[in-house]
Design goal:
Layout lengths: L3 H17 L14 H6 L18 H22 L5 H28 L5 H24 L4 H20 L11
Helix pairs in contact: 3-4, 3-6, 4-5, 5-6
Length: 177
């Protein structure tokens, strides 16, 4: 809620404080990161952001990838809403899981129809993601995993390692020569 000028002013003051204390130091102004400050201000929502660059060119796969982002964001929002017990989060988790199962099935059928040479490897990756998602669901349910583990799985495993790396390998099938 502060202006850029105020934020840079705080950063500048901390730089000068570090210099005064011998230069080889770090100083922190807690007004932007303290628990008290956070409790008094609205914390922005954490979301995965879809971009057109993520599209492969197949309308079904692209629509399902966008929906995966939307459902992942709905699950993150459920966590951030302050829901304490898993029963409040489970419907969003299960909607996302149901979509992922459907998406993997349909994506594999499309890739098979297109004669994708790495389909066997891609299927194996899908099965691994589903197994990790189920394992994570159990950990979230018993309280041994929380929002951090969920975001790492969604942003790290599903989006970065799978969609940005493995899925990109089949993009040429839909973009022509």
């Amino acid at each position: 809620s502060e202006s850029a000028k105020e934020w840079f002013g705080r950063a500048d003051a901390m730089l000068y404080a570090a210099k005064r204390d011998g230069r080889n130091a770090v100083r922190i102004d807690t007004r932007g990161s303290s628990d008290l400050w956070s409790a008094q201000h609205v914390i922005p929502t954490l979301n995965l952001a879809w971009q057109e660059a993520y599209e492969c060119g197949d309308p079904t796969i692209d629509r399902q990838h966008r929906e995966l982002f939307e459902l992942a964001n709905a699950l993150i929002d459920a966590f951030l809403s302050g829901a304490e017990d898993f029963a409040a989060i489970a419907p969003a988790y299960d909607r996302l899981m149901g979509h992922i199962v459907l998406h993997f099935t349909e994506e594999e059928a499309i890739l098979q129809h297109r004669g994708y040479a790495e389909l066997k490897t891609h299927r194996r990756a899908h099965r691994g993601l589903l197994a990790r998602a189920q394992e994570l669901r159990g950990r979230v349910a018993d309280g041994s995993a929380g929002l951090g583990a969920l975001v790492e799985f969604l942003a790290g495993d599903v989006v970065t390692r799978h969609l940005f790396r493995m899925d990109r390998d089949f993009f040429p099938l839909f973009r022509g020569k």
